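So, does this match?
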Amino acid sequence: MKRAFNYKYIVLMLLLLGTSIATAQDGLNSIPVSETFSENGSYKIKSIAFDNTPGNIDGVSYVYDGDQLMYQIPRSFDMLLDNSTRIVLSNDGKIVVYYHNKKYRPEKEFDNVVVYKEGLLFGSFTTEQYAACSNKENDCTVLYNNYDAVIDYKRSDYGKADYKKVLRSMDEDEEWLHNKMLVIKDNIIYTVSGQKKISVFHTDDLVLEKNVDFEKLYPFIKDFPSPKTVILNVPKTRMTIDQFTEKKSGETLNRLLEKRYNLKSVSKNDKNAAKEFQLYNISMSGYMTRFGFLELTSLNIDAKFNKEDLVKYIDDINFDPAT
């Protein structure tokens, strides 16, 4: 019987050019990407999720000094339109502070406030630690969120392609809280909790003050800006290994693997392959960067193959990013 390897390979390819404004982090055919600028406008963090499930941290985030990449963080930061998330980048680009009203998993990376310093997890806070309230109390969230109460869903055409936010009539401070439950000035972050108390976080020395009275501090901070964030909608393309072309040779990945292992590649959809060949399976998934490198997120192979060797081989291939 002839020998072959059977591939099952779906790759998520992020096309980072030609993006457009999105209305929400949803939809099966798009990937959420956000860009947030530092207060001084000199630095930017671009966060890319590998899927569109809220609470997911699978992804990558890049911090730029102008157009120059400084470092990357091996996770994504969800930016949801319901005002339950915010991200702040310090004025030197070294500190990233991410706020999320929900905690999806027990690990520190999923805490309600996480602090990264030069790409590494530096510290984290639960809501109770950051906002000085108990999760047994009503409205104990790190960010004040009146989204459902103030959005006129019908007039906004919520959920439609031409969605445009329309607010109901409300008090001045409620409108301010809807737009600015988090503001920043001189590297100091002011957040209003669900219980309408203010926490003050100094990104220079990472000192936290909490449980400050809203009415007392509101006149001082009301004209401070919120971080500038743009949420992008990036088309999602799924491809298989016979569609990825090495830039230098022009050969597809399945042909390269054929030569490396002296095996014929056959699709998992080839029903006759099992009759004709002895099959060895390779199943992997990942994403291609804009520089043409394939970064694997999962790899399952038969014992015939050396996993470490295969990962190194794929890591070294420079694919044509125009794919």
User: Anything to note?
Assistant: The first helix runs from residue 127 to 131. The longest strand covers residues 2-14.
